[in-house]
Specification:
InterPro entries: GlcNAc_PI_deacetylase-related, LmbE-like_dom_sf. It comes from Pseudomonas kielensis. Pfam families: PIG-L. This is PIG-L family deacetylase. By secondary structure, the chain is of the alpha/beta class. The protein has a single domain, classed as 3-Layer(aba) Sandwich (Rossmann fold), CATH 3.40.50.10320. Helices cover about 35% and strands about 15% of the residues. The chain has 8 helices and 7 strands; from the N terminus they run αβαβαβαβαββαααβ. The protein has a 5-stranded parallel sheet, with helices on both faces. A two-stranded antiparallel sheet has the order 6-7. Helix 2 runs antiparallel to helix 6, helix 3 runs antiparallel to helix 6 and helix 4 packs across helix 5. It is globular. The two termini are about 25 Å apart. About 40% of the residues are buried. The mean pLDDT is about 95.
Amino acid sequence: MKSTSLLDSNLPAQIWNGARQLDNLPVINTQSLIAPGARAVVIAPHPGDEVVTCGGLLQLFANLGHPLQLISVTDGSASYPGSQLWPEKRLSVFRPQESVEALRRLGLPMHSLKWIRGGFTDAALAERETQLAHFIARYLRPEDVLFSTWREDGVVDHDTVGRASAKAAQMVGARLCELPFWAWHWPVRDQGQIPWHRARKVRLDSWTTARKRHAIHAYASQLDGDPEMGIAPLLPKVVLERLRQPYEIVFV
């Protein structure tokens, strides 16, 4: 499902606000996901994906003293193909700067956060899946818990990163958890495609939720689009609305 379709105000109810299963998911705490002292490794296909999918978890892990490693696979420079306002050259510089600000807004310990930038080409990951898996595995340890986008999220780069992360975790013996992003914005009729048996809910308090929403607003390039060319923002209002939810969902 393409994010641009979310701009239609006449959309039917989406899974995030219409699936009854969400109310009945098992609630777990962070200790159920990661052992004391273990490292959390977050794989973001594009800058900002880490905030939308697990900005709350990142805060919880940091507060508990877990070492954190973020791998940004691409720089997100192909967000707006053909845009004069946001050409690739500008975005390749601007989006990493947005990420720095977003991570600061989350309150993460920037002095100790290990941040790896993969330099892979945005919107062209599928043909490099094997290479990406080996790249990710290079930075993993067996005791790590890896958090990646769900391999069936419905966006090619997200799906590819999910599959590559699964392969990398298997190579090393690390644990993998998957994080849906665009899947929550599928229409309710598609809720049967969600692996509810694997879904777990981690509750967030109001401060953690507010910080996550504040962090995503650091991505100005993704919130504005290019109105003069009729290019819609990558993060439409419905995504921002979903970020009000006081929880995050993890597929274990």
